[in-house]
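FAQ
Q: What does a multi-component entry look like?
A: The components come first, one per line:
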Amino acid sequence: MKAEGRKDIYFILYLTIALILAVIYFTVPERALFIENQLKWWKEMWEVIVS
Amino acid sequence: MNSLQYIIINLALFSSWFLFLVKKKDALSFVDRLIGAFILGLAQIIATEMLLGILFKQLYAAPLFILNFILSSSVFITASGGRNVFSDACDEIRSETGRIFKVINNDRVLLFIFGVFLASVCWVICLGYLFPSYAWDALWYHLPMVGYIMQSGAIEETYTPWFIDQFINIFPKNTELFFLWNTIFLKSDVIVDLSQLLFTIIGVVTVYSMALKLKIGDKYALYSSLLFFFTPIMILQSTTNYVDVAISVLFLISVNFLISSPEDNEGEAYFRRWPLLLSGIAAGILLGSKGSGPLFIAILSLAILLRMFIKRFRLFNRLVPSNNRNLIRHGLISYLLYFLFPAILFGSYWYIKNWLLYGNPVYPMEISVTGITIFKGLYGGIIDPSPEVLNNLSPLKKLIYVWEERVKYYLYDSRFSGFGPIWFILFLPAILFSTVLTIKRRERNYLFIGIILILTFILYPRNWNTRYVIFIVGLGALSFGMTLEYFKERENILKTLALLLAAYTALVSNSPCVMPEKIKEFVRLPAEERTIARLAPFNIDMHAKQEYGYWIWIRKNISEWDTLAYTFEPLFHSPLWNGGFSSRIVSLKSDTYPQWLKSLQENNVTYILIRTRSAEDEWIEKDAEALKSLWWVKGTTQRYETVYSDKNYKIVRFKKAEG
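Then the predicted structure of the entire assembly, as tokens:
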């Protein structure tokens, strides 16, 4: 196999691992609450800015 | 005037060391000289404060300014040496920053990441300036160390009636001496909570320098360094008076100076003198910053010695002058002189002092090996229990659990989060990938860094606690830069992912202790009213609510030469001082009233903080009643005047003259 072809495989492998980790990271049960809290924080911040 | 003094001394201190290092161009790159100037400046701050505080007991703003000004002037004169180093340095700074900005400008994603980085740093500065130090340990012992040193002008043991005071005495104080530096000239604690931000920024620069030494291209080195910043625990700790960022960054700096530059000649000595010396000084400052310092020194020493032996073995097979092969002369002596000696010089004082005073260098922690107690202490291991949820997990599962960040918000000392998504999603696989790649390519520098950082990570107690091991993110950042460069033809996806995650991290690294309503309120408040009690951060609120009243009163009313006596174990010592730590506090507890009264007078107490219905409260009331009954005697006035009272506490003005 050519070096470039091997690189493609490594790249796909790296991306696949990163993607799996991203799914694990963003789907833990607490993430929804975490993001909700942050949205609340920014919503409040926005109200402060516009008020 | 205070601000001017602070700016002048900092400019003189850091610029003189940078100019001094201009002469070392052959041994140190431009970036390494920047880091070196920071380390030498920091070392000067610590050394001069220790000299004035331990030896002369005169650690006050004026002598500290004069001593440092003289030293910096001497360094500047030595540096200039007849040539115009100043214009040389300015030209170099201009050309280097121009080059870096050109690289950033040529890559749109990098430009965006740089923009997010700059915005985040400005935001952190704004928050640090606006809000007081609110973190638990900062109020508990990191800032009180500064307060006690400032009030006595001496670095000495404080009278310790309560357990937490032990920490104020036994904790190595190098980083706290830097906190003191950021307070003493300004006579205000307004920016002291930004002290660690400087370490964060230097950490970013250090990762850049390390990446260049790993032969990572300029652009990718910048990706590494900027992404290193997007570690939530670092962003959040940058506005707290903790020491964790400082520790990890000092460790990375020390490792950085141990890596040889790509330009270094293979046949040269084992380690070059200046980088090794700077590594030793950084390690020394680290050693004197936390009780875990000896672990870092042991691993760094092991790495240096191991590298020497490996190089010695390789040199046998090369045509190298035999002089350079001499392991004892060029290797071990260099190590002892340029690494171990400065490390001990800048870090060992606190351990020796503890050993002499408490019979244990790491008191109150007990040191025992295979059941044999070597140093007796009050407890073994780490004092606070580990979280229940982690107890039954294997070491690897503990790490995964924490790195998944199963939390509702980030916090500066969170035990279940802190590394953020970039670490988990991009850096972790990059470490694996880069390790395989560098083993294949036989790139010794990466493996050298990797072994040091991973070994330290493995050996560090409670390595699942992210704030203790921030340095490992540095390895992740370097690995990602290397991975990105390897895939440079396909880099766009990875770069975009990095940008998205960096922006996400910047947006979600908000502390629940600083809510938008408070930001609005604090922007409108004058500086002297932006207090911890006004902030009422949720991390301490439940415990501190009842203390806010007298904290506010103290902040408003206690002036520079006042002495506040307290008669009970306070929740935190820090709020007992005024805003600039220029007042005095003293713990006065006695069994009898005459004894107590005598100690109030001896200590020139002006205010007394007491608990209502305490023995002291009763004594004061009895004294007032006794004086009332003597109303007919001319010239009798009340010795005590209540100036503040709430349900739980009273502050009483003590009039010594009438005593």
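Q: Is there any commentary attached?
A: Sometimes. For this entry: The CA atoms of residues 527 and 533 of chain B lie 14 Å apart.
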